[in-house]
Amino acid sequence: MSAERTSALRHAAATRSLDAEQRARNALAALDEQGGAVTFKAVAALANVSRQFLYSRDDLRTAIEQLREQQLRAPRLPARERASEDSTRARLRATLEENKRLREALVELRDELALAHGRVREAELATRAAPAARQRGTHR
């Protein structure tokens, strides 16, 4: 085999390997984004590469193992469905403001309830006092 042909074959093999590695990275990102299970089998199938290829590339192997471990620790939503930090903070602020408003309304309602109980008590006392006053008036 000529040196020229050997060089061309090496270049073609390196190009195929880089293409397969990029497909594997894209598959890994897609599985993470969609919330799919990150396994060597799933990445290999999606990237159209062998599992042996994934195991032989230390960086791909590490990335797959890390994502798989993250999923096992805390199952999570796909990336596009996760709330951003700003969104979470805005929701927290809105919730705290709503909580404050509801506490103020509760204080007002308790005050109104106390007044209503006082009026009911006054009415009950007046109702009891009226017959007693009438009875005292008839005995004279």
Quick synopsis:
The chain is an all-alpha fold. Helix content is 83%, strand content 0%.
Global Rg: 38 Å
What's the structural domain tally? 2
How many helices? The count is 5
Roughly what is the average pLDDT, rounded to an integer?
Answer: 89
Order of helices and strands: HHHHH
Q: Could you give the count of β-strands?
A: 0
Give unreliable regions as ranges.
none
- Oligomerization state of this entry? single chain
Instruction: Estimate the strand proportion.
Output: under 5%
Globally, the shape reads rod-shaped
- End-to-end gap: 140 Å
Strand pairing plus helix content: what structural class?
mainly alpha
Task: List its salient traits.
single chain, 140 residues, mainly alpha, 0% strand
What does this structure look like?
The protein is mostly helical and 140 residues long. The protein has 2 domains: 82 residues; 56 residues. Helices cover 83% and strands 0% of the residues. The longest helix is centred in the C-terminal third of the chain and has 54 residues. The model has no long low-confidence stretch (mean pLDDT 89).
SSE map:
Layout: H1 3-34, H2 40-47, H3 51-56, H4 58-73, H5 85-138
